[in-house]
Request: fold
Amino acid sequence: MECIRIWTEVDIQELEAHIIMVDDMLGYCHKCKTIGIDIRDIKKCPSCQREIKYVSSTEAKGGKSEIVGRMRKKLPHLAFVDYDDYVRLTGKKKAESLFKA
Ligand SMILES: [Zn+2]
Reply:
């Protein structure tokens, strides 16, 4: 199955409230700053308990569809948010620098 981007309107605050950033299949919660979250079947942040509905990843920067496809397979219950769109809309560049280490 191929992955394709479908544009939709979002409430950016709602998106931010329910998104998790993932790298190498470990998650980062930008709200409580927890790193290394096991994201298999994740529905809530294990630390702050906020509900997770969206996922994005620096690895998918530039629209790397194979990365998105891999994550969709592992996290089919979460909507994959394009990383570049997310950064553009939130200005949260710090999420990027966190994973550069
Ligand atoms: Zn959290």
The mean pLDDT is 88. The beta strands are 19-23, 26-28, 37-38, 54-56, 79-80.
